[in-house]
Amino acid sequence: MTRWIVGGLIGGLMVTVAIGFASDVPVDVRDQTGAAVTIPQPIERVASVYGAGTFIVYALGASDRLAMAWYIGVKGIGQASEAMFRLEPRLADILSFGDPNLEEMVRRDVQLVLVDGSRHSGFADQMMELGVPVLRFLVETPEALMDAVRMVGAALGTDAAARAAAFLGDYDRVSHAVVEGMEARPSSERVRVLFVGTDPLTVASGDMYQTHLIEAAGGTSVAADLVGYWNEINLEQVLLWNPDVILIAPYGPVQPADILENPDWQAITAIHEGRVHRVPRLIAPWDTPVPESLLGIAWMADVLHPEMCAIDLEDEVLRFYAEYYGYPLSDEELAHLLSR
């Protein structure tokens, strides 16, 4: 006997799941490129070539099924943080990086592969030819992240699907709390934000996830009209934009003091008001399309308009890591994540 559950239309993609009372009923999922994928059940060995997708697997309580895993910004065991080892005791055995290896996937008897729909198209086709189902991800908006979480939950079975539903509920709750807090402020008065990457003059374009997070947090990106990926600009452009707040990605060398103490930047409002902040990171960066970006929205909302933010950031941080990663934060870790 089989039940059909229609997950809904998220970001233009329909996820339809056949969940049987027997654990061996296949699941049909449409991935984020629109491809229909049939996934045999149960799935016990997953390879996540898509670094952001790896953290979705953790959030859905299925990390024990990872046979190979790529992690954002980790290109060797020496780059893994202490927190990552605490999160994943098997890290040395499952950590992978660089281009995916077909033979290694076969050797590890992988049953499902998660890939970047843009970067790994050829590799995905090869795995599909071998009869291994592949889910392709295209995530550059919060809506697409929601679809990705729903998709992985469907593929990994009823327990994962239930955790996906819980996460989606939390994401909606936090997002609505931000919107409600901003109702008293007209859109013309939104805080104007510049998001910089691994260099102060490398900025996030309007196409990138960071810009969508800023908007979800009640701000507006001064670089929203730029397209593509990271854009290199000059200081004159920053002066023209004159942002109220500058946010710094957590995976480069740039620190707030590098901007606040630079004499060339002193005419900018964000510098005058001391509103230059580095986005937190403990395990995954909060500004990337991972489940932790739920905290990225809450943190940004608190930074951009603390007087209107109805979110208890400390409570959200403690709750997320405990419920979705099974990770108890130390006092030092919590203080670091809440610091400005």
Quickly describe the structure:
The protein is an alpha/beta fold.
What is the element layout, followed by pairings?
Layout: E1 2-10, E2 13-20, E3 27-30, E4 36-39, E5 46-48, H1 51-59, E6 66-69, H2 82-87, H3 91-94, H4 102-107, E7 112-116, H5 121-129, E8 134-137, H6 142-155, H7 158-182, E9 191-196, E10 202-203, H8 209-216, E11 219-221, E12 231-232, H9 235-241, E13 245-248, H10 256-260, H11 269-272, E14 276-278, H12 293-304, H13 313-324, H14 331-338
Parallel strand pairs: 5-6, 5-7, 7-8, 9-11, 9-13, 13-14
Antiparallel strand pairs: 1-2, 3-4, 10-12
Notes on the structure:
It is a single chain. The chain is an alpha/beta fold and 340 residues long. It has two domains: 2-170, 3-Layer(aba) Sandwich (Rossmann fold), CATH 3.40.50; 185-338, Rossmann fold (3-Layer(aba) Sandwich), CATH 3.40.50. The chain contains 14 helices and 14 strands. The protein has helices at residues 51-59, 82-87, 91-94, 102-107, 121-129, 142-155, 158-182, 209-216, 235-241, 256-260, 269-272, 293-304, 313-324, 331-338, and strands at residues 2-10, 13-20, 27-30, 36-39, 46-48, 66-69, 112-116, 134-137, 191-196, 202-203, 219-221, 231-232, 245-248, 276-278. The strands form five sheets. The protein has a four-stranded parallel beta sheet with strand order 6-5-7-8, with helices on both faces. Strand 5, helix 1 (51-59) and strand 6 (66-69) form a beta-alpha-beta unit. Helix 12 (293-304) packs antiparallel against helix 13 (313-324). The longest helix is centred in the middle third of the chain and has 25 residues, at 158-182. The chain is globular and about 60 Å long. The model is unreliable at 1-22 (pLDDT under 50).
